[in-house]
Amino acid sequence: MTMKRAIGLMSGTSLDGVDVALIETDGERVQITKGRNNFLDPLGPTGYRGYEEEERTLLRRATRDAESVILPSDRPGHLPEAEVFVTRAHAEAVERFLADNGLSAADIEVIGFHGQTVIHRPQARISIQIGDGQALADRVGIPVVSDLRRADIDAGGQGAPLVPIFHKALAEAAGFEGAFGILNIGGVANATLIDSRGGVVAFDTGPGNALIDEWMQERENKNLDDGGRTAARGKPDDQLLAWLLQHPFFAKTPPKSLDRNWFSHKLAGQLSTEDGAATLTAFTARAVLLALDHAPERPTRWVIAGGGAKNGELMRLLTTLLDAEILMADAIGWSSAFLEAQAFAYLAMRTLKDLPITFPSTTGVSRPISGGVLSRPR
């Protein structure tokens, strides 16, 4: 099959901005080359369109308003305004990316548009990612695949995580063997576990950066704990940590996915800024360790990606707890910051080819199914 260019767009629950990534794929393989140390060279160019604080405020308000959603079509409160903004911001990100890389719309086969998650309640068959795929396609002049979770949820799946099939393609391209794990730490953390026979299990492990970011926003008016330095100065509250880890989500058998609103940074309550950051950081790390209770085979090697990979204290805790070889995505030619955007480019191409994007072992859906809504420019 011929490799074609696809763009992926991702705006995560951390609400920091729009990630843009281009890959070449036929929907099954990804175009890569072997570089230094026999690892992969980067898949393709990337870009970013950050959110201003007032834009983040709008998205936070929309997320709060989404709590009153009853039907998937509901758009209460600030959601309509936020949906227009999300679509515009993603269009601006694509236009800037094309210009920066000397590309035109005709050079791109498809765009994978995740949108902005405002609520994820698969048990109620609700998962809303705001963003208008048709409006984006019309503005940028490129076919767009959006609403990638809906078909899976309608078929009884969790609608998440969506990226494991891309993780497996990357692992195969890298030639990794043996039990292997990929941990992506965004607002929520998710893991893809590949056993030595090639079987895949994937699920959300628990909070990622979201609680830490919210804590720092409230206490220090900062968007994150830069490098994990605040947490490193603190001491986790062991009693609170033990209580948090009793949440029934952690005992639930995968496949499973998490709504970031199931946990709140306010649970750290009266702790000092440093101790609160240390407790929430330890919570993220210990939740990953608990996830291994559900692993068919304990990974001997992990690749860590996502914004959390930049948190030095979180990485220190994970290195100690996981007792395995830890590889940072960037160090092996993968993209820590843009892995999910790359995945949505890959998923969009699979949708064009009518290939499955979710599976019983990743989302709990009854059978492998394709998904996504294709919008062609009018």
From TrEMBL:
InterPro entries: Anhydro_N_Ac-Mur_kinase, ATPase_NBD. Pathway: Amino-sugar metabolism; 1,6-anhydro-N-acetylmuramate degradation; Cell wall biogenesis; peptidoglycan recycling. It catalyses: 1,6-anhydro-N-acetyl-beta-muramate + ATP + H2O = N-acetyl-D-muramate 6-phosphate + ADP + H(+). The keyword Kinase applies. GO terms for biological process: 1,6-anhydro-N-acetyl-beta-muramic acid catabolic process; amino sugar metabolic process; peptidoglycan turnover. Pfam families: AnmK (PF03702). Belongs to the anhydro-N-acetylmuramic acid kinase family. This is Anhydro-N-acetylmuramic acid kinase. It comes from Methylobacterium haplocladii. The lineage of its organism: Bacteria, Pseudomonadati, Pseudomonadota, Alphaproteobacteria, Hyphomicrobiales. The gene is anmK.
